[in-house]
Specification:
single chain; three-stranded antiparallel beta sheet; 1 helix; 32% strand; globular
């Protein structure tokens, strides 16, 4: 039947019929040999009529065992081999000098290769067949590289290992489960934030905040006095063992000492943050300053928590609520990449060291999902994460749920951009 799966549209609905009523979308099944070519259109008519006639159609296309990648164009299910077949939730560079990239998400295939939920890609974009996760992690939420040069990674979410619910696991370089790291019953919940310590201890922080030892056990010497870190945990860059954490209440951001007590020498309340911090990143110029992003925009804080008045971002053009990432450039410019949105589409922008927008980084119409240009203004958006390459090029990877970039190139859920915003193929 070729490369398309047809579905007749009748005034459309954005739902599917199920035992519990109508849901957001329905799945189109690839027709098996011997079945009438009219069966699928008939089923489409039935579902559309049953669900009503409002909204636009959204069809979940077949997910073949052979690794075929089908996406919905608005009229047909079409075969693509450009990337991951489902959403990518998180990406992270391998820190073993390989320049590889890790990815986790809902995907089950990459460029016709079967790979479930966790993958390692080579610097040229091919799948690393030497990394084969032997566990079904069921859509992990986050991945972070270990800081010991091993190439190992931590993954977080809520999944089963040997019939036990866990929120964090460590994978070896080949994708196998590191059985020397066992959080056991310490973390029987979903983990959305992971931050390996940078002080050489081998410890790792998770939202709570909780500090785990190198073997996964809970560090009883870390006793934070506040609940924090559910959006962001960033280890200090000065080797002190301190961490910066997001908070749900004013002053919304804090620095914790190595024992979990609040560092009173850092007062974010003086910076005027008026809402939750969604992401943070240390400046890379040796200043010990830190960037934070939230509904208030992007702010650079000095080492004492006061606002750096030499860095001012105009939030009238771009908005930053639910910002998923902020990444300092590695070219010594002092610039940062950030997740942002305007009234037209969702963007990645590059911000100069004074807060002005770098107009030399051009992404045009940005990212779209089957022709629609979602923003996270009032919604969740479709970009999920980004990472700077480790090969010295300064390129940036962007991940999420999208099918095209700048209305030209077909890219599915992961793309690499150079420092001018063009696709690196």
């Amino acid at each position: 039947m070729g490369g398309d799966i047809q579905c007749l549209l009748i005034n459309s609905c954005k739902t599917k019929l199920s035992g519990y009523g109508c849901e957001k979308s329905f799945r189109a099944e690839k027709m098996k040999p011997g079945l009438s070519g009219n069966i699928l259109p008939f089923l489409c008519i039935f579902f559309l009529a049953a669900c009503g006639s409002e909204g636009g159609v959204e069809v979940d296309c077949p997910d073949e065992e052979g690794g075929e990648d089908w996406f919905w164009t608005g009229k047909v299910c079409r075969l693509s081999t450009k990337g991951f077949n489902w959403d990518v939730h998180s990406i992270a560079p391998a820190l073993d000098s390989s320049d590889d990239l890790y990815a986790v998400g809902e995907f089950t295939a990459y460029k016709k290769n079967t790979v479930k939920y966790a993958a390692r890609l080579n610097n040229k974009g091919s799948l690393d067949g030497g990394f084969d996760s032997d566990s079904d992690f069921l859509s992990p939420q986050i991945i972070e590289p270990a800081r010991d040069g091993s190439g190992d990674v931590y993954i977080g979410g809520r999944f089963y290992i040997d019939s036990t619910i866990v929120g964090i696991a460590r994978l070896n370089l080949n994708g196998s489960l590191d059985k020397n790291f066992d959080a056991g019953t310490e973390v029987e919940r979903e983990v959305k934030t992971i931050a390996p310590a940078t002080d050489g201890s081998g410890d790792v922080y998770i939202d709570g905040p909780i500090r785990l030892n190198a073997n996964g056990s809970r560090d009883v010497n870390f006793n934070p006095v506040i609940k924090a870190g559910h959006n962001s945990i960033t280890p200090a860059a000065n080797g002190s063992g301190d961490i910066y954490v997001s908070r749900s209440v004013a002053p919304f951001f804090a620095r914790l000492n190595d024992d979990g007590s609040i560092d009173t020498g850092f007062d974010a309340g003086a910076s005027g943050l008026n809402g939750p911090v969604f992401e943070s990143a240390m400046a890379t110029d040796g200043s010990d300053d830190i960037y934070v992003v939230g509904n208030f925009g992007i702010v650079r804080l000095n080492s004492d928590g006061t606002r750096d008045t030499g860095f001012v971002v105009n939030s009238s053009v771009y908005q930053f609520q639910r910002g998923k990432f902020i990444l300092p450039a590695i070219d010594g410019s002092g610039d940062v990449y950030a997740h942002a949105a305007n009234t037209n589409n969702e963007d990645v922008i590059r911000v100069n060291d004074d807060g002005s927008i770098d107009t030399g980084f051009v992404i045009g119409e940005g990212f779209d999902y089957n022709g629609s240009f979602p923003t996270f203004i009032g919604g969740n958006g479709h970009l999920s994460d980004a990472a700077i390459t480790t090969d010295g090029s300064g390129d940036i990877y962007v991940a999420g749920k999208f099918t095209h970039y700048n209305s030209q190139s077909i890219v599915t859920n992961l793309v690499r951009l150079n420092t001018r915003g063009a696709i690196v193929k």
